[in-house]
Amino acid sequence: MARVAQQVRQLYEMCAVALVSGRANLDGASEVGFDVELPVFTVGRAAELAHIHPQTLRQYDRLGLVVPQRTDGGARRYSLRDVSRLAHAQQLSQDEGINLAGITRILDLEEENRELRRQVARLRKPSGSSVFAADADGGIVEIERSGSARRWRRQIHVDPRALPARRERYDDGGTDDGSGSQAVVVWRMA
C-alpha cells in the first residue's frame, strides 16, 4: 500500500513539474484523471516544485494569494492547482514586476476564465448527453451518461395496459367513477 501511495505521489510530482514548466495545464491534467484539488505536497516540496522559498509560501498563505488546505494537525498541504498558482505568481512577480494585489487579481480572473471555459464545454455537449441525479445532501448533480446506463434504461419495458387500475377516495368522501383509469409512465428514449 505504501508503494502505491509513493507511486501516486511521484505521478503528481511529475504533473506538477509539467505544470510549472508550461508543458501542461490544469484543464489537461484534470482531463487525464488528476485530481487538481487533492492536497498532496508539503510546504517544502511545493516550494521546491514552484521554485519559491518556503517562507514565501507562508506569506502568500497569510495574504490569501494561495491558501492551501490543512491537515487535522494544522500542517499546510498544497494541491496541483496551488503549485500552478504559486509558480505563476512567482513568474508574474519576478519577470513582470507585478505587485501582490495585481497578482491576486490576475490569478482570480484566470481561474474565473478557466471555470467559464469548462461551463461552455459542458453546454456544447450534445443534448441528452448528461443525466441529473440527487447527491447525498439533496443537491442536483450532473452525471455523464454511460453506455451501461443507456442499456439498463432500454431494458425497462413498461406496458401501460399491465398497470393496475386504482380506485381513489376524493376529499368529499366519494370514490372515483369506476372507469378503471390507469397511471401511465412515460420514458423518453434517446
TrEMBL record:
| InterPro entries in UniProt | DNA-bd_dom_put_sf, MerR-type_HTH_dom, MerR_fam
Which terms in the Gene Ontology molecular function aspect does this entry carry? DNA binding; DNA-binding transcription factor activity
Kindly name one Pfam family recorded for this protein: MerR_1
Q: What is this protein called?
A: MerR family transcriptional regulator
Keywords for the protein's UniProt record, in alphabetical order: DNA-binding
Annotated PANTHER family: HTH-TYPE TRANSCRIPTIONAL REGULATOR YFMP, REDOX-CYCLING DRUG-SENSING TRANSCRIPTIONAL ACTIVATOR SOXR
PROSITE patterns recorded for this chain? Answer: HTH_MERR_2
Concerning NCBIfam families, the annotation shows: HeatShock_HspR (NF047375)
UniProt source species: Bifidobacterium pullorum subsp. saeculare DSM 6531 = LMG 14934
Q: What is the lineage of its organism?
A: Bacteria, Bacillati, Actinomycetota, Actinomycetes, Bifidobacteriales
Q: Where is the HTH merR-type domain?
A: 40-109
